[in-house]
Amino acid sequence: MQFLDLAKIQIRSGSGGHGAASFRREKFVEFGGPDGGDGGDGGSVFIEAVSDLNTLIDFRYRRHVIAPDGRPGRGQRCHGANGKNITIKVPVGTEVLDESQSIILFDLVENGQSERLAIGGKGGFGNRRFLSSTNQAPRKANPGQAGIELNLWLRLKLFADIGLLGLPNAGKSTFLGAVTRARPKVASYPFTTLHPMLGMVVQEETEIVIADIPGLIEGAHQGRGIGDRFLGHIERCQILIHLVDISNEQIVDDYHTIIEEIDRYGKGLAEKPRITLLSKADCLSVEEQQSKVHQLKEASGLQYVGCLSALTGEGVQDNLKRAISLVKLTRNQNLALRERAHAWTP
Fold this sequence. Notes:
By secondary structure, this protein is α/β, with parallel strands linked by helices. It contains 5 helices and 14 strands. It has a 6-stranded mixed beta sheet, with helices on both faces. A 5-stranded mixed beta sheet has the order 3-1-8-5-6, with no helix packed on it. The longest helix has 26 residues, at about 315-340. The chain is rod-shaped.
């Protein structure tokens, strides 16, 4: 399945049907009076988040969503039928933005969450509505209200427990493939991963979702290499795993490049719990690995820097257990904060 995390759509709610201007015509009824029915309301456009979708690819081919118009009223007090409402299905985590992409209209973060994007136009009144003691034969009927047309952007931000960070070719996809059943493309050149990927780990009846985003480069927070879109996918992660290629001579510079990008991007990424790991440990001896770990600890002030090789399995399970423990701790802390926020106080 192709992955798409940004799509532009045009929506239009249905217009209301026109009211009817009609008079009762029946044998032996000389003054039947007005009997024009109202027009039906136009259909509205809704959007709903569903858990069985994880891409916006459907909107590459379906960019126009138009709700049906209401039917016009008729004589004999017959009201027009309402237009059918249209519901757009999107993945959980989708944001709805205005045409300029500067205002978030809705943020669909829960399965089944539904919002109305455009209300249908009201149907017009038939001439029977205008009957009064001073106007026994009204010939006036209202036209239906026009529908609403909007251009909107849909932006998907994935939900995951663990987000993988790193420069291109840092070993993120290899790590994802080693700990989950995901089968990302793996190769020895940068930018092998072009789209975010998800994998799931089940350990001790706990399900952990891991998100692998394409490698970041300097200037990613400003959109270089569409890095700002990639960073958006880890905004909702519980914790981050930062992978640094141990075979690179400039591991300290590589580390600080990513840290600076998430710090400049903002939105709380730099404050998220984070584990730093040196990948591709099979390239060096144990003594060289320890030297690199000590070098990065000294330069970064980190208390823990792990080593792993997704190719040989060295250090993978130990560091995965550490990450899962941190996820559980973060979940419990977030749950306690939500309960405290909703606690009743006199």
